[in-house]
Specification:
The protein is built from three helices and seven strands; from the N terminus they run βαββββββαα. The chain is an alpha+beta fold and 158 residues long. The chain has one domain (8-150): START domain (Alpha-D-Glucose-1,6-Bisphosphate, Chain A, domain 4, 2-Layer Sandwich), CATH 3.30.530. The chain is globular, with a radius of gyration of 16 Å.
């Protein structure tokens, strides 16, 4: 048995969105994300209801590796979801999403915690800087706000 201390990074970001939580939260779903994230196309989604729910599982490509996601908590009334993402040999990730209505829209608190599972994961954790994370979160925020305003996908420039 090999037991080692974790190589881990945790990053959080608060998005400001132009719609109330009841409209935002359903978009945080492996099926509905295709509505507002260009190129989002999971390889497989396992769901009883057809959308995000507790025990929903889905598979995506992360670089050259497949990642398995598992929704451990999904509570639309509270605007809270938790998912675990495993990319074998790279990282184990816990993602939490908390959406709450505020004046003029909603706020989404998004936290990713990545734990390395080996040398490739060590490199990933080292590169997952706050500025790198915030850049991705701002892009996500911009795409979601575009969708909420126009009900269309924001396309990247050619």
């Amino acid at each position: 048995m090999k037991i080692i201390p974790p190589v881990r990074v945790k990053r959080s970001y608060r998005q400001h969105l132009v719609a109330e939580s009841a409209k935002v939260f359903p978009l945080l779903c492996p099926v509905r994300e295709a509505d507002w994230i260009e190129g989002w196309d999971p390889l497989l989604v396992v769901t009883q209801s057809g959308v995000a729910e507790p025990d929903c599982a889905f598979v995506t490509m992360t670089g050259a590796s497949q990642s398995v996601w598992y929704i451990t908590q999904h509570d639309a009334e509270r605007g809270f979801a938790e998912m675990i993402k495993i990319t074998p040999g790279v990282t184990a990730c816990r993602l939490t999403l908390c959406v709450r209505s505020v004046v003029g829209g909603s706020e989404a608190e998004i936290t990713y915690q990545h734990t390395s599972l080996g040398p490739e994961g060590d490199a990933f954790v080292a590169a997952f800087t706050q500025s790198h994370f915030e850049q991705g979160m701002r892009t996500w925020e911009s795409r979601m706000n575009h969708y909420l305003r126009h009900q269309t996908l924001l396309r990247s420039s050619p």
